[in-house]
Amino acid sequence: GSTGGTTDPVVIPGGTFDTAYVITESGSYVLGGNRSTSASVNVIEITAPDVTLDLNGFSLAQTGNGTGSGVYIPTVDNVEIRNGSIVTPGKFGIDAESGKGIRVSKVRVVAAGASGIDIFDDVAAAQISDCQATDCAIDGIYAGGGGSLITDCVVNGPGLSAAWGVGVRYGGRVVRTVVRNCKYGMVLGGATAVDCTVSACERGITMSDGASLRGVDVVLNTLYGVFTPSATSFIKDCHITGSATLVYGFYTDGGGNTIQ
User: Fold this and answer.
1) How far apart are the first and last CA of the chain?
2) Residue 104: its pLDDT value, please?
3) I want to staple 225 with a disulfide (CB 3.0 to 4.6 A). Which of 164, 174, 204, 215 is the partner?
4) CA angle at residue 94 from 91 to 97, to 5 degrees?
5) For residue 254, what pLDDT is reported?
6) Burial of residue 1, with CB atoms counted within 10 A of its CB: 0-12 exposed, 13-18 middle, 19 or more buried
């Protein structure tokens, strides 16, 4: 448990613990040292709105396989997490399930058992910036709610047999983001990617529901560069090259797309 609402940030102690640290009051919190739990226990849970969590350059970590997450946010609005690392979480690095206005910046997630940063479909207007996700088993970064923005992030996947690099839906936008070494590099459902690079994936970019690409490099992917089943996708000023095994540079089974 914790007490917030004070002028100075509440310091969350470092160490190894058997239970989650639960933030139950609005306010500012700062991590005072590296903090870890077993992989079946969330390291930090946020159940109050209007919370800023500064990891302060320290790490949240878990050991072994399990169902716990680095930071678990079940149903609250206006939460910011910044400035630190989340290492080998059993399930998610950051798991936000419902609410709006979730912000994540300058956070590195390594080897999550499921996803690095997972902002579920019921979380609107998420903002993720200057983050890294490395070797996460299912998703590097996913923002499913409407109007989300992902900027200046780097995702390196665990290989071509698994994982999405970046997924975003419902009017979201991905800008200046690099993805490599995933089964699906970038998945855009009604979303836009601008000035991004997707490389060394099996399937470079998958677009649907009127997604768009502008100034995107799709390089050395093995099955296809860009695939869209939609009839309303828009592609402009993109560079698509493949590996020696590339089957399709650009493939669509929907008419009416615009390519410039």
Assistant:
1) 55
2) 98
3) 204
4) 90
5) 63
6) exposed
